[in-house]
Amino acid sequence: MSPCISINGELDEVRTVYLFLGVSAASLAAMVLVDCFMGARAEFLNAFSVVQRLAGLPPPAGESLVAQKFGATGELGIVVAANLVVGGIVTRVIRFLVR
User: Fold this and answer.
1) How confident is the model over 26-38, as a mean pLDDT?
2) What's the CA gap between 88 and 94, in Å, rounded?
């Protein structure tokens, strides 16, 4: 016997992946926007500084505490990981409420 996979089940999984990626991107955008307005007051983890470093510009806020401890690459990894975690949590909540 071969396992049957319904088209609706596959579409549901694809929609969940798109939802996860969309929510994660929105979380990242919100984090960058908030850090842009906060400026140097975002001392622990500044996502706007990460974006500035990726663009080749020196961040005027200086290095955050995370960048001092883990470097620029570590800070980028933590920003991405944090937003993926938020995206995963929000996606699960949305999927739970929709079903």
Assistant:
1) 90
2) 10
String of DSSP letters for 6-54:
-HHHHHHHHHHHHHHHHHHHHHHHHHHHHHHHHGGG--S--HHHHHHHH
Nearest to 47 by CA among 61, 60, 28: 28
What is the identity of the amino acid at 7? I
**Where along the chain do its domains lie?**
13-98
Q: How far is CA 88 from the centre of its chain?
A: 10
Distances (CA, A) of 56 to 8, 37, 71, 72: 45, 20, 15, 12
For residue 7, the model assigns a pLDDT of 57
CA atoms of 48 and 70, how far apart (whole Å): 17
The model's pLDDT over 82-98, given as tens digits with 9 standing for 90+, comes to 999 999 999 999 989 98
pLDDT digits (tens, 9 = 90+) for 5-15: 555 667 788 88
